[in-house]
Amino acid sequence: MNNAESLTDNLRLRLMERPCKALPAAIAAEAIADEKVLDTLLSFVYHGDDPLRWRAAWALEKVAGQCPSLLIDERSRMKALAMQDDTPDGLCRLTLGILYHLPDDEDLDVAFFNFLLDVMLNLQSPPGVQSLAMKLAYRQSKSDGDLHKEFLCIIRNLELDYYSAGVRSVVKKCLKRKL
Question: Is the Cβ–Cβ distance between 66 and 33 less than 8 Å?
Answer without folding.
Answer: no
